[in-house]
Structures are given as structure tokens and as C-alpha cells.
UniProtKB/TrEMBL annotation:
Taxonomic source organism: Sporosarcina luteola
Chain sites annotated for binding Mg(2+): 72, 91
Positions annotated to bind 2-[(2R,5Z)-2-carboxy-4-methylthiazol-5(2H)-ylidene]ethyl phosphate: 136-138, 168, 188-189
Residues that bind 4-amino-2-methyl-5-(diphosphooxymethyl)pyrimidine: 36-40, 71, 110, 139
Annotated keywords: Magnesium, Metal-binding, Thiamine biosynthesis, Transferase
Pathway membership: Cofactor biosynthesis; thiamine diphosphate biosynthesis; thiamine phosphate from 4-amino-2-methyl-5-diphosphomethylpyrimidine and 4-methyl-5-(2-phosphoethyl)-thiazole: step 1/1
A Gene Ontology term for the protein's cellular component: cytoplasm
Cofactor-binding details, from the entry: Binds 1 Mg(2+) ion per subunit.
GO MF: magnesium ion binding; thiamine-phosphate diphosphorylase activity
Catalytically driven reaction(s): 2-[(2R,5Z)-2-carboxy-4-methylthiazol-5(2H)-ylidene]ethyl phosphate + 4-amino-2-methyl-5-(diphosphooxymethyl)pyrimidine + 2 H(+) = thiamine phosphate + CO2 + diphosphate; 4-methyl-5-(2-phosphooxyethyl)-thiazole + 4-amino-2-methyl-5-(diphosphooxymethyl)pyrimidine + H(+) = thiamine phosphate + diphosphate; 2-(2-carboxy-4-methylthiazol-5-yl)ethyl phosphate + 4-amino-2-methyl-5-(diphosphooxymethyl)pyrimidine + 2 H(+) = thiamine phosphate + CO2 + diphosphate
Name of the protein in its database record: Thiamine-phosphate synthase
Regions annotated as coiled coil: none
Amino acid sequence: MGKTDLTLYFIMGSMNAEKPLSVLEDALKGGVTCFQFREKGPRALVGMEKRAFAESCQRLCRQFGVPFIVNDDVDLALEMDADGVHVGQDDAEARFAREKIGADKIVGVSVHTVEEARRAMMDGADYVGMGPVYQTSSKDDAKPVAGTTMITVVGKLFPDLPIVGIGGITAENADAVFEAGASGLSVISAIATAMDPELAARRLRKAALRSMYGRRAVR
Ligand SMILES: Cc1ncc(COP(=O)(O)OP(=O)(O)O)c(N)n1
Ligand SMILES: Cc1ncsc1CCOP(=O)(O)O
Ligand SMILES: [Mg+2]
């Protein structure tokens, strides 16, 4: 897999929005650069319904040329020929995910410490997700708010390992995440619960690009 554009990484499952497919289409129109299918929670779809919904999301991503990454489920990622899989510290080991999914696919790993980041890199991660940077209500079992300090530490120690910040990120607070050294930002609610998801994605993308390239370069 070539370098993945992690600038604006949208994550969503069917329970994150009333009309999730229309939200995803709007988000893609608004400029998200990567998508993660994360179907979990008490009322999450299972079985054939989950698969059908995942396929609809994948079709939309393909239309827009945006990578479709499956959260947690390495087998589903394989069966669907997804572009990649994202695993956390309580999921399948990154090494196993990489072995199973192959060298040409994307493997993302959630990390919270230098040691976890080092292991993720050795196990073949293409990027790491770090957070929650700010308070989040989208993950019941989220760890305590971490701020941006560890992003800076990991970014300095492993400059070739792309980092995406996650947790409570909005267009207003995104700058600090890039300042800390992240290559991208990852959001659920800032797009999924927005009145206008396309506009929300457009604003987040603009905020991200301004942080990366400067205000004068991005209007
Ligand atoms: C990009 C990104 N970063 C972190 C996570 C969190 O993964 P995990 O800790 O496994 O928690 P769940 O999302 O599985 O509840 C992520 N999904 N994506
Ligand atoms: C999946 C996940 N992992 C850490 S925080 C989080 C949820 C992010 O959602 P939001 O952008 O709505 O805070
Ligand atoms: Mg997980």
C-alpha cells in the first residue's frame, strides 16, 4: 500500500448517526481522506445486516477513492478485501493482523505509550492512533483524556511513524494535534452528529490543511 492520506480520518458505525450512509456520502463529498468502519456498541448491527451495511460503506468509499478500513475485525477486513484494518491493544495483535491481511494493506494500531508505539512499529503498523486527546462521548470504555503530550513524545522518538490524534477533536481544537506532531486527525462525532456533515468535513479538512501548510496556503 502506498502512503495513506490520514489528514482527515472519519470513523463511523450505524449507531453514530440517524442516516449513516447519507452522512458518509456527505463526509466523502466534504473531503475525508480515510474511513474506518466501526460497528460496535449495544445496538450495533450483527451478521448479514452488519455485512450489508459495511458493503454499502465500502462502495461509497470506492466511488470517492477513499481507503475503507475495518475496525477490530481482521477476518471481516479480509473477506471484504478492505484496504486495511485497525486494531487496539485489546484486539488481535498487530503482528497477527499484518501477517493475515498482507503487506499491501493498511494496518493501524491504537497506542498510548512509547512501548506500545515501538511494538506497533516493529509489528508492521502503517500508522498509530493516539488518544483520547480530548473528552469524548463516542467510546464508553475510553481511557482518561491524554492531551497531546504523548503524541509529541512518540512523534519525536519515531519520526517515520505516522500518528493520528483521536478523541473529542473539532475544527476549533485540531491545531494543537498537528502542533504536537500528528499527521492527521480522526473523528466520529464532529462529522457524524453535525447538522451538515459535508460542511463539517470541509471545515475540519481546511483546519487540518491550515495547520499543516499555513493559513496563507489554504483559503
Ligand atoms: C484511528 C483510530 N485510533 C484509535 C482507535 C481506537 O481503537 P481501540 O482502542 O481498539 O478502540 P475501539 O475503536 O475498537 O473501540 C480507533 N478505532 N481508530
Ligand atoms: C474510537 C475512539 N478511540 C479513542 S477516542 C474514540 C472516539 C472518538 O470519537 P469522537 O471524535 O466523537 O470523540
Ligand atoms: Mg478496537
